[in-house]
């Protein structure tokens, strides 16, 4: 090779290497934390911002670590989830798409081979140079199809350290799994979704009506439920049998730090300390930190999801607090939408004794306080790692994949369009304070679909590129700077428990209605557009005068015109602006797509209710 050509080649290689290094230096490490079923009022700082008080309207809460994050970064106080159910909400975050655009409306398994599917957030982050790792709960029920067209597992993070894996290793205080053998003997019929608790000595204690048929285990479920003081949700249809149903009160079988969530935080710290070497967790080895790449880390905490069982040290302390339980007037049921009444009936809690309601509320907020300590532990480990390696960093904290009722509307659980189920603030903290200033509060509407574009943009993705045009959200950095258009509303849709129902929320109103006649995908897509007003089961609340969203005004003549404007806007978006439904099948292998796009660009974020 001539010397001149060799010199040019060296210059080109040098430019490429220096460019890659420069890109790496500009790409921040990212930690994305999502909690589970967490009400915003469990965080003191959110109460101060929204209600000018330190604690919840129900009583005492503790959140020193999230409060600290709010002071370190920017709080997006009016963030709303896209679906008040775990799986569809987490899908909207990972895809950056509304449910009506992804085709994921509840807990269905789905696959990535259909034509409208795009890579998830962690897959896109890997494509722009990140090492991706997930610890704890993921909740995205994605699969792919093998050569034979069968749905199989599809990991979306390069390293996944799941809650199920950790529980099987005994690195947890509880778990739930199928059992194909018992005491070393194979079972003719497997035991499905059996709940178990893990003692400090590593003993697995099962509790389920399924094990009661075995002579050795008769009475065990009752003993275990009593041992951990579990109160299982009960009603007329569900009598609350030992080992059956969700536990809304209880105590952990292990001490703080050795619980399911505690191990998420400690394993994350161990991962960060495993630079360029394998990470041994129990019986398996995982890839440690690749220091040649920036990090994208996701921790999916389980707290305060049921079973609500905080460690004893936290539970004991919160039992001193007397909570003001939300009162329920059964007159609310007279005007409540049928679908929302269905959820209330399923999660009904007003029949619980006063003592049971107190314990339920004490344990819930104690669990949140414990989780707050783990959020602080994880963030501190992450920031210390990043600063030790002279790397920029960003933390995205999401307060719950949705909320949780504590006897509001006479119910527990989620799955409804009420504010208590859908209002979930986000905090973004960055080493670059010009982008996300310390202590700043943004009151404009923001949504869970904003998370993906925010993280991608921070990592260097060019969001104007054609490959990212499917994203429904906005880069929160541009919301802060004022470059993003201000939303007049937020929207969501969920089909779990209530059946197909969508909502639209403005500063003054929230309207929701039934979107489909049933859950059969692709049939009668325009049903709600053509049905009578009464048939779509409308609900309208005026949030300024009715902050608890109790009085349904959908049929009030003084508000009928407002309801109709909101209905038309909502349905034109979720049913007509590139709606997708897929017959996924029971195992997620379906690929038949149904579309509706008769009102393109209806989702313009503008809505005028002044007339």
Automatic annotation (TrEMBL):
EC number(s) per entry: 3.1.6.6
Signal peptide: 1-25
InterPro entries associated with the record: Alkaline_phosphatase_core_sf, Sulfatase_N
Biased composition (Basic and acidic residues): 602-611
Domain called Sulfatase N-terminal: residue spans: 28-460
Domain of life: Bacteria
Keyword Nucleotide-binding included in the entry's annotation: no
Record's GO cellular component terms: cytoplasm
A single MF term (Gene Ontology): metal ion binding
A Pfam family annotated for this UniProt entry: Sulfatase
Region (Disordered): 589-611
The entry's keywords: Hydrolase, Metal-binding, Signal
Alphabetical list of PANTHER family matching this protein: IDURONATE 2-SULFATASE
Designated name of the protein: Choline-sulfatase
Protein source organism: Mariniblastus fucicola
